[in-house]
Amino acid sequence: MLGIINEHINFQVNTQAEGEASQNKLLLGSDDGKRSYTLFQGHTGPVYSATFCPFGEFLLSSSSDSTIKLWSTKLNSNLVCYKGHNYPIWDVQ
Q: A GO term (biological process) for this protein (predicted)?
């Protein structure tokens, strides 16, 4: 899945099926080729969904590993991992 924060920054979420090889990561970067991409790693299963806060400072991602992760796009790191779900999480908003 591809998404756009604004006209300069986009993100890509891995949407491979569970049986397929998966990279379990999010990419954040620019379409114009002038900026490098930021790789967010931390989920142990395929990432199904991602969404940004209105100003683009934070990113939520959900995965087949039954977790939701809150990422800082300024620090390029995971801030919180929400655990305790019994099933894969297909969507975050």
A: transcription initiation at RNA polymerase II promoter
Q: Give whole-number Cα distances, 62 to 30, 34, 79, in Å.
A: 22, 29, 14
Residue 46 burial (CB < 10 Å; 0-12/13-18/19+)? buried
DSSP state of 54: T
37, 27 Cβ separation under 8 angstroms: yes
pLDDT of 74-91, one tens digit each? Answer: 898 999 999 999 999 998
What dihedral angle (degrees, nearest 10) is formed by the CA atoms of 15, 19, 21, 23? Answer: 40
Q: In what order do the strands lie in the sheet with 38-41?
A: 2-4, 9-13, 25-30, 38-41
